[in-house]
UniProtKB/TrEMBL annotation:
This is Shikimate kinase. ATP binds at residues 11-16, 120. It comes from Flavobacterium potami. The keyword Magnesium applies. Substrate binds at residues 33, 57, 80, 142. The lineage of its organism: Bacteria, Pseudomonadati, Bacteroidota, Flavobacteriia, Flavobacteriales. Mg(2+) binds at residue 15. It is found in: Cytoplasm. It catalyses: shikimate + ATP = 3-phosphoshikimate + ADP + H(+). One of its GO terms (cellular component) is cytosol.
Length: 172
């Protein structure tokens, strides 16, 4: 069986949806950000502030490759930027991978992130206006990489359960 890889912008629901998909499919779930935190013994915020983003991106790539090489089956929730660095977007097309882009609009992302930005170093210090502008531009820049996924599921105006059902549909 293939590894199921969920990707998309910060706040699109990768971690939330992956946990719920895991409960239904009984396939274990791993969150790439959490794996990196465990490996570094630091929070994502601490990695960014103590070592910088380039160091984080190297760890992120190494950990992603490691998980894909593991013989076990997992649902993997990626970090928001994972497909956009190194050759990670090419790894989304691997034979043993089912990659799914959880596609959310700027409004959906803004509404979810505006009160949940403290653990996300890229937006943690922005005011509301800066954040909306940042998300719009950043999503535009990253869309090319997200669109390398094998499948796409639109998450706007859907409950967690509805998105999980849509994912099961594309995997069937
Ligand atoms: N229908 C929904 N589907 C998914 N998440 C939802 C939904 N409605 C509200 N949320 C909330 O939106 C947030 C999504 O955050 P989550 O951490 O799952 O995103 P993420 O894509 O893993 O972000 P990051 O890239 O920063 O790790 C959570 O607080 C979740 O409770
Ligand atoms: O979108 C991003 O670049 C990031 C998203 C998070 O999941 C973390 O991986 C980190 O905060 C960077
Ligand atoms: Mg997450």
């Amino acid at each position: 069986m293939k590894k199921i890889v969920l990707l998309g912008y910060m706040g699109c629901g990768k971690s939330t949806i992956a946990q719920n998909l895991s409960k239904i499919t009984k396939i274990p779930f791993l969150d790439l950000d959490e794996c990196i935190e465990k490996r570094a013994n630091l929070s994502i915020n601490e990695i960014f502030s103590q070592h910088g983003e380039v160091y984080f991106r190297k760890l992120e790539h190494e950990m992603f490759v490691e998980l894909l090489q593991s013989p076990e089956n997992f649902i993997i929730g990626l970090g928001g930027g994972t497909p956009c660095y190194a050759n990670n977007h090419e790894l989304l097309k691997g034979e043993n991978v089912d990659s799914i882009y959880l596609k959310a609009s700027i409004d959906t992302l803004y509404n979810r992130l505006v009160h949940n930005k403290s653990k996300r170093p890229l937006i943690a210090n922005m005011n509301e206006e800066e954040m909306r502008e940042f998300i719009a531009k950043h999503l535009f820049d990253r869309s090319f990489y997200y669109n390398q996924a094998q499948h796409k599921v639109v998450v706007d105006d859907k409950s967690v359960e509805e998105t999980v059902q849509d994912i099961l549909g594309v995997l069937a």
